[in-house]
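Intended use. Records like the one below are meant for learning the mapping from a protein sequence to its folded structure. Do not use them to infer anything beyond what is encoded.
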Amino acid sequence: MGITLLPKEILDNYEVHEWKHACAILRNDFPSEWADITDLLKQFRLRKSWIAQGGGNKSKVADAIDEFLIEKGWREKEFATSVKVDENIMDSPTHKVDCYKNRVALEIEWNNKDPFFDRDLNNFRLLFDLRAISVGVIITRCDHLQDIFVALGRGSSYGASTTHMGKLLPKIEGGGGAGCPILVFGISRRLYDEKC
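Structure written out for the chain above:
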């Protein structure tokens, strides 16, 4: 079954990959979060103005996704984790998760340096092992969007060492997420809206 559980509209507009039955777990055990994610992906469009405009700490893509999910009750979340051996307690800090709701962690990696994928996957692995999350989701961009960036004169801002699907897949397939079920969506050119 796998990704065929997703609506056709999403499969047509995103590059989708899953590991360890993430779709089935989300759809059956977390129906509200499944609905939030599928609603987000159905309405999302990649605006030309978001690419043409440079800089800033957080991309307009990440802002748009965050805003949609915050309205649905998702929050940025930092976990306080530690390891206890006998009477010794050692902090084991994790990185903040971009969007979290009811044991589902979602990261947006639009145009960061590719080591951010390692950080996200390690976070998913640790939080899954600690039973703090059940599924990890990553939204990134498809490799072929580079053609659009180059055409807009922004190709150097979206370089080969930044986050995109070609950098993510080998990390997951190499075991980066360990036992954590993972679902990945790549924003494709079909979602590109050059009119806004």
